[in-house]
Amino acid sequence: MPLARSLSVTSLSGLEEWDEEFDLEDAVLFEIAWEVANKVGGIYTVIQTKARLTSEEWGENYFLVGPYVESNVRTQVELIEPTNPVLKRTIDKMNASGCKVYFGRWLIEGSPYVILIDVAFTAWSLDTWKSELWDLCDIGVPWFDREANDAVLFGFLTVWLLGEYAAQCDEPPHIVAHFHEWLAGLGLVLCRQRQLPVATVFTTHATLLGRYLCAGNVDFYNKLADFNVEKEAGDRQIYHRYCLERAAAHCAHVFTTVSQITAIEAEHLLKRKPDIVTPNGLNVKKFSAVHEFQNLHAQSKNRIQEFVRGHFYGHMDFNLDKCLFLFIAGRYEFSNKGADIFLEALARLNYLLRVNHSDVTVIAFFIMPARTNNFNVETLKGQAVRKQLWDTAQTVKERFGKKLYESLLVGQLPDVSKMLDKEDFTIMKRAIFATQRQCQPPVCTHNMLEDSSDPILNCVRRIGLFNSSSDRVKIIFHPEFLSSTSPLLPMDYEEFVRGCHLGVFPSYYEPWGYTPAECTVMGIPSISTNLSGFGCFMEEHIADPSAYGIYILDRRFRGVDESCNQLTSFLFQFCKQSRRQRIIQRNRTERLSDLLDWRYLGRYYISARHMALAKAFPDTFMYELQEPTSASGFRYPRPASVPPSPALSRHSSPHHSEAEDNDDERYDEDLEAEKDRVNIRQPYTLPFKNKSSADRLHSWF
């Protein structure tokens, strides 16, 4: 589902539409990834959201290639006959030769064509293809690595598909094959080894070795140049995977990564400097109403508040109107995703809020899937008690309303002492007694299979945040993906994010970072780091990110304790903001949506494919990228008006929030947007030889 934003903001200045001179009528694009119609991680989001833009560019000549997973096909893919006669002959011949290849439309925005290959059906060829891989590339794949075995099968089947398509063409084709990640990379290596007429692009969204090294608590970024990469890969038993990834990076006509920080990583670990950086975007749908995203925030916040009322029943000694919802979400990598530093910062924030006698309560959600066996009984009971209280209140309200109506009907003012009888009081007392609780509200909403060794729960035990009444910071660990069908918290992820006040993502290893990007598009401030692709991207494009609700935590040049103190400072300053200041900040955050829209960021992918065509078919295509002579890109300046910072406001204490909400000073969002639009700097544009002046690209190197 596309994320939404309002029409009140301005588009990026100086980014007119490109007039592409490349003739793509005779070219065909195959985009190959293990996550085509198969959700595993963030690459699924990249391909799914980018499909509409790529379909508009390539039309009927765009095909996504992925694995056939029956459960996913039933719900996501409409199987049809191929409309392209060359492709139909290709698939028919492969199916006649012992393969199972399916063709259909992926039921997402853009409705792209998909070619799904059943790798399990050809598992009988695995040993033969492994031997061939060893003979050709000296890469051996162990029998017990199922993921690598799938990569071998998928790679050989992919190159079979591309080779057969080229053979079935009446005239020499211009094929572009874009491979994502190491799981699809073997197909690229085989394309070059068999000298197929294919222009190849390889994108690594995160290096294998980088992810493993960071999980091992090493000083990764400051020691990048010192790693013995072959030894490190061998020590972690991923040498064969590393070889596949490195071979794909070196064999590709064009090698890309998703961020500048990952480009540096790839240069040291894969030993090739990326040709271009292709940042990840989102489909940004515009609202017709000016402040609709603010209304959606209020609606979603109310639903989260209902959950909180049930979860903390019997301990609702805090004001929900002065309650801030923070969250962290993503793959359960305790250190890589920054959950460790977030928990430590929450403990320090709890101390600051208590010693300053703040009436603000912070509820921090941890949305990270882990191994569980069911919902926590106490958590489910809380939601049942909340519902029972609501039903009781409705019953008493109806009885009260009926008596009031009858009294007014006869022309008398009601006797308040007679409006509620003994039965009403009995019902209400029973409801109150039902809310009594002998234990603290649970930290985890589920029963964990490995409770004693779970990193988050062990850290909570160490810092002592058990949701007690004296704590100003509460923690809720939800070890499951959010779903609108959940009996506990019936909200999908997008709706939940909209209802929160701040996303916290202090990652140590984050090649891009879709979670803070999604927050930005929905107008929710977030905390990222200068070790994430998103954080580096925002630092490059925004003069003062914090004024726009993008807080960049320094984890590269500071120690863990210093970074934790900085994060605590960010959180404490955010807690000091009044409601009005948070509204202004959300407006500014949402104003950055254009930066993350595929209609802008998709141009980097367009450039990568055209560069590959020029390298593979130099007689037909020409595309030369020149080095920039000055800093590239454009930068949002600091907002023209006073930023929503407590330090510069009349009151720094949250005790004055209500007074600020009712002051006479008016905030004009349209005027604010116009001030920022005037101050947006024009982007630097690169010249291209033999190209129209409208063809522009912002270089990263």
Report on the architecture of this protein.
- The chain is of the alpha/beta class.
- Among the domains are: 255 residues, Rossmann fold; 58 residues.
- Helices cover 44% and strands 13% of the residues.
- Helix 3 crosses helix 5, helix 11 packs across helix 17 and helix 12 packs across helix 20.
- The chain is elongated.
- The N terminus and C terminus are likely disordered.
- Keywords: Allosteric enzyme, Glycogen biosynthesis, Glycosyltransferase, Phosphoprotein, Transferase.
- Its EC number is 2.4.1.11.
- Belongs to the glycosyltransferase 3 family.
- Transfers the glycosyl residue from UDP-Glc to the non-reducing end of alpha-1,4-glucan.
Summarize the model shown.
The protein has 701 residues and is of the alpha/beta class.
